[in-house]
Amino acid sequence: MKLLYSIHKYDVFMFTWLLNVRIHGTLTTFSRYLSKTGDGQLYIIIAGLLYWYEGFESPFLQAVLLAFLIERPIYFVLKNGLKRNRPQAALKNFRSIITPSDKFSFPSGHTSAAFMMATLLSFYFPLFMIPLYCWAALVGFSRVILGVHFPTDILVGVILGISTALFSLGQFAI
Q1: How many CA atoms lie within 13 A of 125 on its CB side?
Q2: pLDDT value of position 73
Q3: 3 state DSSP class of 39
Q4: What distance in Å separates the CA atoms of residue 111 and residue 155, rounded to the nearest whole number?
Q5: For the chain, how are helix, strand and coil distributed in percent, rounded to 5?
Q6: Is residue 173 over pLDDT 60?
Q7: Given pLDDT bands bounded at 50, 70 and 90, which one contains residue 15?
Q8: Pick the catalytic residue: 11, 149, 150, 152?
Q9: Active site residue: 110, 138, 154, 164, which one?
Q10: Which of 72, 85, 96, 145 is the most buried (most CB within 10 A)?
Q11: What is the pTM of this model?
């Protein structure tokens, strides 16, 4: 229990520090846009384009579908099983910049999905690996700046996203 308290204390410290940096106002506007890129519409477009161009036989499309079929239930069980409060509910006198779609924060679904897609896309388009992972990292960072996640929510989202992508690539990649 002491370890969890120490982690939470560190999380609150990092969260508060990030929200108090001088450029927070500028980051807020940018973060709103970045966060929206991880809402899910982009992933549906990618899957639709893959289906249109390659059909269901596409190993890439199959890897994407399997990854989401694994990642979303794990994410849902963790989020609703651990029930970690979002910063607004956990910290006195704090208001997040946006209203999150659900009550709990751990892990970050936006971050998980972004890193999962960055990993999958990087496998098939290695030239874009660095920009894809930068985008995914910025999606996660934006969730902290917007006040809806603690840093460890993001960290676990990264781990979940990359691991489910690697597993699905191992099943379908040629």
Answers
A1: 10
A2: 95
A3: coil
A4: 8
A5: 75, 0, 20
A6: no
A7: confident
A8: 149
A9: 110
A10: 145
A11: 0.86
How many CA atoms lie within 13 Å of 162's alpha carbon, on the beta-carbon side? 11
Cβ 113 vs Cβ 165: under 8 Å = no
Pair of tokens at residue 147: 């006040």
Instruction: Tell me the C-alpha distance between 114 and 73, whole Å.
Output: 16
Q: Which domain holds residue 161?
A: 2-172
Three-class SS state of 133: helix
**Number of domains the chain contains:** 1
Q: Is 40 left (phi over 0), alpha (psi -120 to 50) or beta?
A: left
Is 8 one of the annotated active-site residues of the chain?
Answer: no
- Is 149 known to be catalytic? yes
Tokens of 91: 């910290």
